[in-house]
Design a protein that fits this description.
Elements: E1 39-41, E2 50-59, E3 64-76, E4 82-87, E5 95-96, E6 99-100, E7 106-110, E8 116-123, E9 126-133, E10 141-143, E11 147-156, E12 162-178, E13 181-196, E14 199-210, E15 218-229, E16 237-247
Antiparallel strand pairs: 1-10, 2-3, 2-16, 3-4, 4-7, 5-6, 7-8, 8-9, 9-11, 11-12, 12-13, 13-14, 14-15, 15-16
């Protein structure tokens, strides 16, 4: 699935949620092994799929925060849409400065292109529902070297909507090694921008998605965050890396 390549609006009112990415497996065919005319086509995960990730975060207080993440595909619909439950199995509270980096249990809804359309977070103060208006991420089909540009709005609870702009490119196919193994993967590179409370945040992300397996699991994702305008809050993210540990 396409996990939105940014932290959602809910971060401003409850907790910054890392939207998961899930899918099928693959084997290493070596770097640059894309066949002629190769292109990406999103492949829906199977109901019951379970993926485990590690995540490492660095913030502007010089803290490194580590946590685990699990994604469980709870339903797949006839139209290709599906739902995923994500949580940190340790359920540890992670507070840095004034920023709540806790990964609260979250249920996501995705369309047939693997783009998040809504989610519900079970936070400390109760559940909060978020919705997305517009295409939140790369399209479900893209040629190697192809690009996209989109704008979408995320609205959580009764808070104001936050507008995101994103541009990206499917840079190619390459080999990537993570604890779960070595995979041949599509390499997506994107930039996502949002302004909230006078702070403009730019997230530059590289994401590798399984190319050879039965569905479009994310193998690895690495993001760098930069800020301008007003001063970002204490504990704001500077870097984030997520790697696949295991799957079934």
């Amino acid at each position: 699935m396409h996990r939105p390549m940014h932290r959602p609006l809910l971060a401003a009112i409850l907790a910054p949620v890392l939207l998961a990415a899930c899918g099928g497996g693959g084997q290493d065919n070596g770097p640059g092994s894309a066949p002629a005319g190769a292109s990406y086509q999103f492949r829906t995960p199977k109901a019951g799929a379970h993926l485990a990730y590690s995540a490492s975060l660095a913030d502007n207080l010089n803290n490194t925060l580590n946590r685990s993440v699990t994604d469980d595909v709870t339903a797949v619909n006839a139209d290709g849409s599906f739902t995923v439950h994500e949580e940190d199995p340790s359920h540890n509270a992670i507070i840095s400065g004034v920023t709540d980096q806790t990964l609260y249990p979250t249920d996501f809804q995705y369309n047939a292109a693997g783009q998040a359309t809504a989610w519900t977070v079970a936070g400390r103060a109760g559940s909060v529902q978020c919705t997305v208006s517009g295409a939140s991420g790369a399209p479900g089909a893209l040629a190697i070297g192809g690009s996209w540009s989109t704008s979408f709005t995320e609205t959580c609870g009764s808070g104001p909507g936050a507008v995101f702009t994103q541009s990206g490119t499917l840079a190619g196919i390459e080999s990537v090694t993570v604890p779960a193994g070595t995979f041949t993967a599509y390499k997506f590179v994107s930039t996502t921008t949002r302004t909230l409370n006078g702070v403009t945040r730019v997230e530059s992300t590289t994401r590798w998605r399984d190319q050879a397996g039965g569905d479009s699991r994310t193998i690895k994702e690495a993001s760098v965050f930069t800020y301008s305008g007003a001063t970002p809050p204490a504990g704001a993210l500077l870097q984030q890396v997520r790697e696949l540990q295991s799957y079934r």
